[in-house]
Amino acid sequence: MTTATATATASPAGVRAGRAKTKTVVGTRRQLDAAELAATGLRDRWYPIYPSRFVGPGDMVKVRRLGVDWLLFRDAKGQIRMLEDRCPHRSAPLSVGQHLGDRVACKYHGVQVDGRGTVVSVPGMPGCALEGKTVTASLAVEEGADMIFAFMPLTEDSVVTAFKLPDRLDNPEVSWFSNYAEWNSPWRFYMDNVLDPMHGAFLHRDSHSMFGGDTSARFRIRETDRGFFFEKTDQRGKNFDWVEYCREAMDYVDLEIPYADSAGPGGSFGIVGMSTPIDAHTSAVFHWRTRTVSDWERDVWRFMYKTTLEEKHWAVLEQDRELLEALAADADKDEHLYQHDLGVARIRRVHDADAQNQAAILSEGVV
């Protein structure tokens, strides 16, 4: 695992005489209310950002995450760096500049910023006060499970929590394949979708793995030490019968779908899923498809996945994408929920409470 860690920083907000400093969300330069936080993504947690393989040596990759434009690049040692995509001089995008190994140079006036967001050179005025200042937001980043992850702080005072991959992705006995897509739907729609196992019996009824089981069921919520299960009480091992929502270093869902013996060795097919907001209307979707296999069975499973199963899995994912992209932007504002929707209601309460708490933190000290 390649690791690059940088302290989350932001351009300092002005402090007027006799007035407390206003807390702003890193990268936004302004205070966000609870509704905006819920729409663009909750902070103070780790998020998957982009596949590692998409950022090679010398690359300058611009990504938008949680409503902010960021620059990804590898330094001279190959470590991933993640900076806000704004030059501290005139806010020109650094991503259209030049990669200089351990730093990037803005194309507009040549200002050079290193991987920690510190200005190391101002060619137009050597020795000016900007040199040596850390005024570009930089994030703590990690690489694991084929992906780049970043800790998204709420404010410049946020403490970076320890990075930890989901158990399935950090177990040598589990073989996985990563998957990345971008959907034109809000991130909250993805979370609602995976906390709704019953949709598998309808939307995915004609798929290769979710054709079994009843189209009616009763559900319950079962608490865990890392989140909660939402599961059918009268069916197990037939379809998409349960999902666990996990709150660890990052938020993710963990679930299993039973597979027939014809799908090869390894028992049930596991999925780890995450969604990272791009902005209030689009999201980056990450999945890891897993099976517990070893030795020769591992080789058989991986061969079968690449030659037979991967295409089928993409077809199932496309069914979700097409449905969620077809929903109205306010589809979750005027509904008539019933017992199957206990998981949906629960995840919304969790996220709403987080958004309210983070908005309260931002408002502290504002007079």
From TrEMBL:
Signal peptide feature range: none
Domain Rieske span(s) in chain numbering: 46-150
Protein's UniProt keywords contain Membrane: no
Region (Disordered) location: 1-21
Biased segments, Low complexity type: 1-10
Presence of keyword Ribonucleoprotein: no
Annotated keywords: 2Fe-2S, Iron, Iron-sulfur, Metal-binding, Oxidoreductase
UniProt cross-references to InterPro entries, sorted A to Z: Cholesterol_7-desaturase, Rieske_2Fe-2S, Rieske_2Fe-2S_sf, VanA_C_cat
Molecular functions per Gene Ontology: 2 iron, 2 sulfur cluster binding; metal ion binding; monooxygenase activity; oxidoreductase activity, acting on paired donors, with incorporation or reduction of molecular oxygen
Name of the molecule in the record: Iron-sulfur cluster-binding protein, rieske family
Species annotation: Paenarthrobacter aurescens (strain TC1)
